[in-house]
Amino acid sequence: MSAPLPSPSSFSRTDLRVVFLLVLGYSCAYLGRLDMGASILPMSAALGWSNETLGTLPSCFFVAYACGQLASGILAHFFNPFWSFGLAIAGSALCNLAVPLAPGLAAMRAAWFANGAVQSMLWCSLVKAMSQRVSERAMPRAIVCVCATLPIGSVAAFGGAAAFAPSGFWQGTFYRAAAALGLSAALWFRFYRFPAPPDGAPAAHAAAKSYPRATRFAAGSGGGAAGPGWRSVAALVAATALACGACGFLRDGLSTWAPKVLQDGFGLPASISILLTLVLPFVGLAGAFLNKRFHERQPLVSAMTTVCFVAGTAFAALALLGVALPSLAVAVVAFAGVYLAMVMVTNAITSIFCLAYRRLFDAALAAGIVDTVCYVGSSLATWSLGRAFDSGGGWTPVFAMLAVSGVAGLLFSLAALRVERRVAAAR
Question: Is this prediction's pTM over 0.70?
Answer without folding.
Answer: yes
